[in-house]
Structures are given as C-alpha cells and as structure tokens.
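Hey, quick one: can you model this chain's 3D structure?
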Amino acid sequence: MDRQEITWVEKTFAALSLEELYKILQLRQEIFVLEQACVYRDLDNKDQLSCHLMAWQGDTLVAYTRLIPYGISYPDALSIGRVATASAFRGRGLGGELMRRSIDGAYGLYGGKTIKIGAQQHLEAFYNALGFEQTSEPYMDAGILHIEMTLPPRER
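Sure thing. Here's the predicted structure for all 156 residues.
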C-alpha cells in the first residue's frame, strides 16, 4: 500500500454523505459482526454526536474511527470508538496511523482532556504503544474480553 494513496477525511455526522455513511456501517459490520462474530448494538445514538475519521483509498473505506465528545461514552473523558481497519489493509501500519490521527483529532476537536477507550484485551500492547494505560479489570463485552484504557490529558 502506498501511503500517498490514502486520503484522510474527518466529518461530523451531518456532513456525511449517504454513501459515506453506508460504507462506514458496512465496514463496521464486516469487522465487528461478521469477522469477530459480535452481537452488539452498533447503532447506539453516538454516531450523531461524534466526528468520523475515515481513511479512503479511492472509493474504498480502508480505516475508520469515531471521535466521541466528552461525557458521551464516559462521564469524565473523551473517547475513540469503532476502531476498524479493513482486513486487506492490515499489517501495514495503518492501524497505528489511524489511532495517532484519532488521538490528535479528538484533542483538536474537543480539547486536551483525558481519552478513555474500551479496548479488546488482546490489543493492550498496541494501545500501550500509543500511550494508553489499562485502568480496569478485564470485562466481557459482546463475547470478547475488553479493558478500559486511558490516555492522559494533553496540554494545548
């Protein structure tokens, strides 16, 4: 994958086109429902309040996160959720770039507050490398062990 071929786009829910929304939901379904066999409520009314970070290669959505404002997922933090990289694009550093851009985007949009995520436990080292620390005991979510992880506030 050539990095110049990836176009990064950040949009509010209202600014998403129908085609973009469809591809976001399609990618989330492919990864979380089909690949990981999770039964969970994807449409949780947070999308409308969030900013959506998308990585495109042409008209293919290759990576995605939603940047969730303070107080929506956690009463005392911002959040990043629905972290997804298309299977054909894994193993090339795109996930790390997606999360670095997501962290910068969340801080830029919502201020340098604490960021909390509900991470799949097997990805702890990945998130540790980005500065997140485990802040909860493991818990089951949609049949997969998760842990809460926290990134401290950033000075602006």
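One thing worth noting: The longest strand covers residues 60-68.
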